[in-house]
Specification:
The chain is α+β, with helices and mostly antiparallel strands. Helix content is 32%, strand content 28%. The chain has a 3-stranded antiparallel sheet, with helices on one face. A two-stranded antiparallel sheet has the order 1-2. A hairpin with a 4-residue loop joins strand 4 (28-32) and strand 5. The mean pLDDT is 83.
């Protein structure tokens, strides 16, 4: 989910997988696949950047899953474990500087 701001100033989270299109008319209008529309203060470029960052985080987290932990010795499936988020190391380096 991405966080956006309504024209009233309230912040909300939006499932970006449901976005059909984003228009700049000049207000930014987000249309979902079910036809619902949201007018937000962020620009079209900011919305696209948020979606890209969100999808990048999903991909980064998916590569951090310990696939070997998905199977027990008996071949039964179980949930995988998640290791440290790859960007956590970057945040630690930035705070040390």
């Amino acid at each position: 989910m991405i966080t956006l701001t309504r024209l009233s100033g309230t912040v909300f989270a939006l499932n970006c997988d449901l976005i059909e299109r984003v228009d700049a008319t000049p207000d930014t209008v987000i249309t979902l696949v079910d036809g619902k529309k949201y007018v937000v203060t962020e620009s079209l470029e900011e919305v696209l950047r948020e979606v890209r960052v969100h999808r990048g985080e999903v991909l980064a987290l998916s590569t951090a899953i310990d696939v070997a932990a998905w199977h027990t010795d008996h071949g039964e499936s179980k949930l995988g474990t998640v290791s440290e988020h790859p960007t956590a190391r970057l945040a630690a380096i930035e705070t040390e500087s």
